[in-house]
Design goal:
eight-stranded mixed beta sheet, 12 helices, binds guanosine-5'-diphosphate
Length: 309
């Protein structure tokens, strides 16, 4: 049963990476079928760069491969590809997986979700709520994006469909007050998890960023250790721009982890590596499709395997 679950999770990640895989794995393998020389190595570096691994990583991996090949000139194309896979894995394995654990009786795990509109915030909240709910946890979602009435409606629709409970604020009401009410309700109803949606904001708009701090203070008043996680939702298809967004958000409010959506919609899955290298923030989940089941915990080993298989 567990094996079946793991396999289906792996298959989902693998299929989400199919665009990246044809850019990376298959092209590199055919490159290695010929002799390895300065020209092919340049092409390799270019391919890695095109898959959004970033300039530094693309160069480093190519240099490491060059050295390795000098020492082992009889390696097969598959062995060379495996060397690259291991290099990528080495670049990824820095963070412990999973979210923070709240000791039993310590109140709900409070997760604050932030991000720019369109990145997949609402969908990711629904997917997360479904995940926790499937694990048998009692989940409450808080619609604290009081900025857009449509956002409240959208979250409500998801909540009914899963189903999970929802606390919502009136349009234009104070999001910090919604967070306060939701956490108070979650505590008294002995919920295991509270997921708080916030207004999609441009990371360049200072007042909105300050509002996030206010929401955090609100949570803090009800449960001093909360929010336990502040997860930033980033769209993998936006490449370097996603990294810039994360940098700006992190300046205003510390981000504890990332949800990287739409990996299925890009051939630039190498962005995962660039993000971890450049930001030092763990990727907690990856979005692998539009459905409720299409969110997977990020697992470096699984990711690097799926990238080249
Ligand atoms: P929000 O404005 O940030 O709340 O974004 P939404 O949750 O409304 O999502 C914006 C669009 O992205 C919707 O069409 C979603 O179905 C889509 N989306 C979100 N996550 C993923 C994903 O992992 N893969 C794909 N293919 N689409 C996604």
């Amino acid at each position: 049963m567990i094996f079946k679950f793991l396999k289906s999770s792996y298959d989902k990640v693998k299929s989400a990476l199919s665009k990246t895989r044809s850019l990376l794995g298959q092209k590199i393998l055919s490159l290695f079928k010929g002799p390895l020389n300065e020209e092919t190595l340049d092409q390799l570096e270019q391919m890695l760069y095109e898959a959004d691994l970033g300039v530094k990583m693309s160069h480093q991996i190519t240099e490491d491969l060059k050295k390795h090949y000098r020492q082992h000139p009889h390696l097969t194309p598959e062995e060379l590809l495996d060397f690259i896979r291991k290099e990528i894995l080495r670049g990824l394995q820095k963070f412990p997986p999973g979210l923070k654990e709240v000791p039993s009786g310590g109140g709900p795990l409070v997760i604050l979700i932030v991000g720019v509109n369109g990145n997949g915030k609402t969908t990711s909240i629904a997917k997360l709520a479904k995940k926790f709910s499937d694990e048998g946890k009692k989940v409450l979602v808080a619609a604290a994006d009081t900025f857009r009435a449509a956002a409240i409606e959208q979250l409500e629709m998801w909540a009914q469909r899963i189903p999970v409970d929802i606390v919502k604020g009136a349009p234009k009401s104070d999001p910090a007050a919604v967070a306060f009410d939701a956490l108070t309700a979650a505590k008294s109803r002995q919920m295991d998890v509270l997921i708080i949606d916030t207004a999609g904001r441009l990371h360049t708009k200072t007042p909105l960023m300050q509002e996030l701090e206010k929401i955090k203070r609100s949570c803090h008043k009800v449960l001093p250790e909360s929010p336990h996680e502040t997860l930033l939702v980033l769209d993998a298809t936006t490449g370097q721009n996603a990294i810039e967004q994360a940098k700006s958000f992190n300046q205003y409010t510390p981000i504890s982890g990332l949800i990287l959506t739409k990996l299925d919609g890009t051939a630039k899955g190498g962005i995962v590596l660039a993000i971890q290298q450049q930001l030092g923030i763990p990727i907690k989940f990856i979005g692998v499709g539009e459905g409720l089941e299409d969110l997977e915990p990020f697992d470096a080993e699984q990711f690097s395997q799926a990238l080249f298989e």
